[in-house]
Amino acid sequence: KLNLKSIVMAAAVSLIGCLCAYTQNFALPKILYVGLFALFAVLFYCCLEYGYKKWQSIGALILVLVCLLSGALIRPIAQGFDAITTKPLYQEIQLLQQEEDTDNPNTYLAYNSTIMPSYLKACGVNVVNFVNTTPNVFLYSLIDLENQYKDIWNRYEHVKITISDNEETIFSLIQNDQIEINLAEKDVVLTECNYIVSQEELTLSNQWFALKKVYDEGGVYIYKVDYTQAAEEYASEQKDLLMNKIFGGTNDESEEK
Fold first, then answer.
1. Backbone angles phi and psi of 121, in degrees to 5
2. b/e map of 223-251 (b: 16 or more CB within 10 Å)?
3. What CA–CA distances, in Å, run from 191 to 4, 184, 228?
4. What is the pTM of this model?
5. DSSP codes of every residue in 229-254
6. 59 versus 89: which is more confidently predicted?
7. What single DSSP character describes residue 75?
8. Average pLDDT in the 178-206 region?
9. Rg (CA), the chain
10. For 120-155, how does the pLDDT look when each residue is reduced to its tens digit (9 = 90+)?
C-alpha cells in the first residue's frame, strides 16, 4: 500500500530539485524535466518507504550529481568590464574626461536616479550623489545651514537628486538607507557639478545656470552646466556663512588664521 505522506515528501523534494535545475537555464527539453521529476520522485519514495541500502545509495548519488551540476554549470552574469566599457555613454564620458580642466575636475550629478550614480562611478568620474558610506557633511551643511534636515542626511545613504524651482531645498527620507534631495535651482551651484546625466530630457532655465545638451543617445542625456555670476556669488556667500558658523569668521578670515 502506498504511503501518501511519503508520496507528498518525495514529490516536493523532486519538484524543488527540478526547479533548481530549470532556473540554472540548462538547455534541456521540458519533457526531460518531467522525466527527471518522475525519476526523482520514485527514487525518493523508495528511499523513504523501503530504506534499502541500494535505493539509498542511488538516491544519494543522484542528489550529489544534481548539486554539482547546479553549481558547476552556472554561467557568470558578466565577465570582464565589457558590460560597462562598450556602452556609448561610457565612451562619451571618456571623451569628456579628455577635455577636463585639471584645475576644475569634472563632477557629475545623476538626475532622479539611484542606479545611474553607480554606473557613472564605475566610469571613473566624480559623482555628487554616489552612495554615501559617510555623509557629505560639507555639501549638506552648505545646503542646510541650519541643520534642519540633519537627522535625514546624516547616515549611510543612497541619494536621489531632483531639481525644482522651490525657494529652498528639501531632504526626504525614503527608507533607512535612501534619501531624496529636491534641490532648489539656486543650490545646484553648491554641488559644483559641471555635468548632469539624466534619463529624461531636461528643460530647466533660470537665473542660476544654463544647460547645454552635449549627448543624447539611448534615452540618456548629458547636459553641461554653465553657472551665472549670480550663482557664483551665492555659492561664495553660502561658504562664508558656513565658515562663520564653524569658525566664527568669514572664509577669507579663516584662511588668514
1. -65, -35
2. bebebeeebeebbeebbbebbeeeeeebb
3. 67, 11, 14
4. 0.68
5. HHHHHHHHHHHHHHHHHHHSS-HHHH
6. 89
7. P
8. 95
9. 29
10. 999 999 999 999 999 999 999 999 999 999 999 999
> Is residue 126 within a helix (H) or strand (E), and if so which, with residue range?
strand 126-127
Task: Report the interhelical angle of 30-49 vs 4-23 (nearest 10°).
Answer: 140
CA 112/CA 114 separation, integer angstroms: 7
Beta strands across the sheet bearing 126-127: 126-127, 107-110, 195-198, 220-227, 209-217
The grid cell for 91 is 565612451
Rounded mean pLDDT of 100-118?
91
Residue, of 112 and 36, whose pLDDT is higher: 112
Whether the CA torsion 118, 120, 126, 127 is positive or negative: it is negative
Contact yes or no for 92/123 (Cβ under 8 A): no
Instruction: Point out the least confidently predicted range of 47-51, 65-69, 74-78.
Output: 74-78
The C-alpha cell that represents 251 in the structure block: 572664509
